[in-house]
User: Fold this.
Amino acid sequence: MSEQKIRIAILGATGAVGTELISLLEERNFPVASLKLLASPRSAGQKIPFRGASLIVEAVEENSFRDIDLVLASAGGSTSKKWATAIVKAGAVMIDNSSAFRMDLSVPLVVPEINPEAITQHQGIIANPNCTTILMGIAVYPLHQIQPVERIIVATYQSASGAGARAMEEVKVQSRAILEGKEPQAEILPYPLAFNLFPHNSPLNDRGYCQEEMKMVNETRKIFSAPRIRISATCVRVPVLRAHSETINLEFNAPFDLEKAQNILSTAPGVRLVEDWQRNYFPMPIEASGQDDVLVGRIRQDISHPNCLELWLSGDQIRKGAALNAIQIAELLVEKKCLKPQKIAVSV
Ligand code: A2P
Assistant:
């Protein structure tokens, strides 16, 4: 990595992803010149440790981005939209974890293991994809490169962390309530998640697909540069704290050799193959939690179709699904010396 040191602001520093961003900057020895922690006025004054210092959280305001090179934003779509212009005008680059700009044609949507070259096209904003999309892409792209995938059928088993730190806390409180024989209360999520599961609660379209499912369709097409790939997703929230799992059926235009697929995935970047067929041991969210790699296993020939493979994965939603992917983008920006935007974004 170059000697360049970066002045960073984290927008949403007190959230589940924000907290992970802070630890990753420290853990990966990112060249930080200064770190500003921003959140809502609720958190102003809160102290957060970083590299031996105690940083004070500030409420975000118009001048927050002055003298900042890079903003890592994870405070929801409306907050990203509200501050994007101020960030870009201040000359900083925004890596945005929300869905606000992901499908904007002028905004690169990047998974460094898949389309790192896209970062050079940025105009001040780079979008971090949806967590389920990142995890699926990490497992599917290495096979897609060898033999194009024509159709993906995916079902997700999504942890509470996807709905933020308060949803994670809610599941713990609900679990305690149920074990004590009390009625669980739901405030952040629409229904009790402890000892339960339900289809993803994002808004439904007129075809019956929710927003989360359509993110998997549209974002995967954009990241893979494969606008015609057919994808159908069913997203489900499960009472797991921080790692998502997915079952994925891939259809190719001809049979894909099973052993070849296993070999490819055993060395694919960002993937750890976890398969012990004797012990019936495969990826589990409890083991994926806190890990950088997406755990992939149970790669099988689909018995119902000669051109299809089945696979299963678990990946840390907060890390590779969000914060780690954003930090990897930041590392690429430093490495490729892309931190100064080429021109002011036109789309904000
Ligand atoms: P705060 O803790 O002050 O509410 P999560 O996704 O885990 O729920 O985290 C969301 C993050 O976004 C938190 O840091 C939260 O700060 C921050 N946030 C939410 N709304 C705003 C806002 N309007 N302005 C700035 N930060 C916000």
Notes: Residues 341-348 have pLDDT under 50 and may be disordered. Helices lie at 16-27, 77-89, 131-146, 165-179, 211-224, 258-267, 285-288, 319-335. Residues 12-16, 18, 39-40, 42-43, 60, 75-76, 79, 164-166 surround adenosine-2'-5'-diphosphate (CB under 6 Å). Residues 57 and 133 are 31 Å apart (CA to CA).
